[in-house]
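User: Teach me something about this protein's shape.
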Amino acid sequence: MNLAQYINIDHILADLSARTKTQVLAELIEPLIISHSFLDRDKVFGVLKTREDLGTTGIGDGVAIPHGKIEELDEVLIAAGRSREGLDFSALDHKPAHIFFLVLAPEKGAGKHLKILAYISRLLQDQSFKESFMNAQGRDEIWDLITRT
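Assistant: First, the predicted structure itself:
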């Protein structure tokens, strides 16, 4: 699978400024809203917040994969972010999250959505990938890393 089909370099935030779960969701949404003006910021945020209320998407080991379904979409959209300091994302292991992949999917087509979530989850279990992501010297290097996978 090539994540470059679903993310572009403008959707990568190499240095998140967020300090809370709510702030990181808002910050990750922003580049998607900018490049897809038909998306409603409040609606997207609400979908993600509702999903988080059902159970955290902080899967542990420094990783969170917030996700949700948006009816206006006809394609999957991904944003990625990095917090060098880490922040509390209510992760299952109670450790701070540093690496974030936000996935927005169309209401229809759950199969692709689930495959992408599984792929990202497997990718982020690779310690080498995670170290390279954390050590990348900015957005361009993170983009290169994502497009090589």
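Now, about its shape. The radius of gyration is 14 Å. Residues 40 and 135 are 33 Å apart (CA to CA). If you'd like, I can walk through any region in more detail.
User: That's plenty for now, thanks!
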